[in-house]
Recover the amino acids of this structure.
């Protein structure tokens, strides 16, 4: 099967997320990396793109040049990934969608709820494939959890406990490190720091696995390092449309925690828990039964998990392959082979609405606040 052509905006040399996208997009032979505007420094971006094998005439200086250049080509890219700083996601994603390109946008999709609603409308009007990179939802054993919940193996879901906490920003002396500083700067990160950066991954997993959406929430934010304008620790209680009780903690100052993304789901007849640091296992216990450890790749898993298991049982699968699974589903959708099982602009919008609701709630000393975007109320 002929490869789809793929381009990237952002994700240049030294980027944290760029290599994961390049490995993920090309892992299965679905995409060829043919175009890029990889750096805010035009010359640096052009040079780096060519070291990655991109032809000089498709190594662009910025995203506008890339949009104009690709629009004019008969062999234009089939998909563009937007992996730039948060504040630029809306403008770039909207422009490429309106020009008829399929788009994968890094999270957060936008900085405001209004921008999120606009992306939802533009994506629907364009008829293009548009996705948001909540890549943790593409781990095989996360798909197993969702399938078990949907199949009723836990009964009615009562409680979800989600967490995304680490200690890598705990050093106050590191405040001027540019890779840290921007995350707590409203001009670059928006209204929220840690909740918008990591907390929304955990919140999205809660909705993804349970098939239910957050309705209201109550939040407590803290900037434990006084120089930070935005929060580095947050606790959020929430309730879903279906009545599930939710608890979420997210932090950057939890010294001793590394990646720290995990989720627990408890129903009337069973419970599940998964942690990204041990992504091959899901712990499952039935009411009155013994603890069972389900292993990626073993017999008896749902097709949703088996389809995305890439290596033999007992061999670890990590973050780049979770990103690759997003690209697998995107390729199927672009080719018209399947609808595609990936986070959509509606997911991106709901996440941003929840972030803004959490900010408002924290300012109001934890007042319960409607977390739904206006267009979904």
């Amino acid at each position: 099967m002929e490869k789809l052509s793929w381009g990237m905006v952002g994700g240049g040399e030294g980027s944290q997320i760029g290599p994961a996208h390049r490995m993920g997009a090309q892992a299965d032979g679905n995409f060829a990396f043919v175009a890029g505007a990889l750096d805010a420094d035009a010359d640096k971006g052009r040079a780096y793109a060519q070291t990655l094998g991109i032809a000089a005439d498709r190594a662009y200086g910025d995203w506008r040049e890339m949009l104009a250049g690709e629009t004019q080509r008969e062999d234009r890219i089939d998909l563009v990934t937007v992996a730039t700083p948060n504040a630029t996601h809306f403008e770039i994603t909207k422009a490429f969608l309106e020009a008829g390109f399929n788009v994968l946008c890094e999270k957060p999709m936008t900085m405001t709820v209004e921008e999120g609603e606009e992306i939802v409308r533009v994506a629907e009007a364009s008829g293009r494939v548009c996705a948001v990179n909540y890549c943790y939802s593409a781990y095989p054993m996360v798909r197993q959890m969702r399938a078990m919940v949907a199949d009723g193996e836990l009964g009615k879901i009562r409680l979800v406990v989600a967490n995304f906490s680490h200690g890598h920003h705990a050093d106050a002396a590191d405040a001027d490190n540019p890779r840290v500083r921007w995350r707590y700067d409203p001009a670059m990160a928006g209204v929220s720091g840690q909740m918008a950066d990591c907390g929304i991954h955990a919140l999205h997993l809660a909705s993804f696995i349970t098939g239910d959406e957050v309705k209201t929430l109550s939040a407590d934010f803290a900037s434990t390092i006084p120089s930070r304008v935005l929060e580095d620790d947050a606790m959020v209680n929430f309730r879903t449309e279906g009545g599930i009780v939710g608890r979420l903690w997210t932090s950057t100052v939890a010294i001793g925690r590394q990646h720290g993304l995990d989720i627990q789901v408890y129903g009337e007849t069973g419970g599940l828990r998964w942690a990204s640091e041990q992504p091959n296992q899901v712990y499952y216990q039935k009411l009155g039964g013994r603890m069972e450890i389900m292993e990626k790749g073993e017999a008896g898993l749902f097709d949703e998990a088996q389809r995305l298991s890439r290596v033999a049982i007992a061999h670890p699968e990590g973050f780049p392959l979770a990103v690759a699974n997003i690209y697998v589903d995107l390729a199927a959708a672009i080719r018209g082979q399947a609808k595609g099982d990936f986070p959509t602009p509606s997911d991106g919008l709901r996440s941003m609405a929840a972030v803004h609701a959490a900010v408002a709630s924290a300012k109001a000393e934890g007042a319960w606040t409607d977390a739904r975007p206006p267009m979904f109320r």
In short: DSSP finds twelve helices and 14 strands in the chain. The radius of gyration is 20 Å. The mean pLDDT is 95. Residues 297 and 312 are 6 Å apart (CA to CA).
